[in-house]
Amino acid sequence: MTIGQAVASFSLVAALLTVIPGLDTALVLRAAISRGRAHAVAAALGIGAGCLAWGVAAAVGASALLVASEAAYRVLTLAGAVYLVGLGASLLWSSFRRTGAELPEVAPAPGSLWVSWLTGLGTNILNPKIGVFYVATIPQFIPDGTSPLLMGILLAVVHNVIGMLWFAVVIGGAGFMARSLGRSRFARIADRVTGVVLVGFGLRLALQHR
């Protein structure tokens, strides 16, 4: 398998994973609707940074600890579950507390692109399934004679590029929907849907064994 073949094969797997509706898409969609395009881009970049960190960790073998150590996996899982449930609960609370004329905020520092970036980063960093995915897939796409570290980083970058293209589609679609249905009303709906997704995912993460 050549480097080109490895990148092409991995791109197909990464693209299928990216377009399946999930936590990352929900967060970017919510940010685009309720906080605007800049915050959605910041959240997407944070998610991408988290993916890149996991990819590098997998390439050097660090995240293999999640596979080998039940304790390490469990600690990270519980930390991620608490983070997701807390974030989801705050979105649900703000969506019901504020009036229709107000836009709900996602963090104590409204208007901060840094907070939106950290939200995206934290969601991925505290999700051990991302690390397990990279550990399980990246080694299969490393051609003989190539550097595992450099190839792992290349594949993580490829996944990021695919993710950014998908998020661009999501952000553009969110802007159209907000203009069509009214930003405030659509923002409350997005907050409630995203809140339920976050809480549900967090509880599932906490209750699962592997």
From TrEMBL:
It is a multi-pass membrane protein. GO terms for cellular component: plasma membrane. The keyword Transcription does not apply. Keywords: Cell membrane, Membrane, Transmembrane, Transmembrane helix. InterPro entries: LeuE-type. GO terms for molecular function: amino acid transmembrane transporter activity. It holds the Pfam family LysE. It is found in: Cell membrane. The chain crosses the membrane at residues 6-29, 41-65, 71-93, 114-137, 149-177, 189-207. This is Lysine transporter LysE. It comes from Jiangella anatolica.
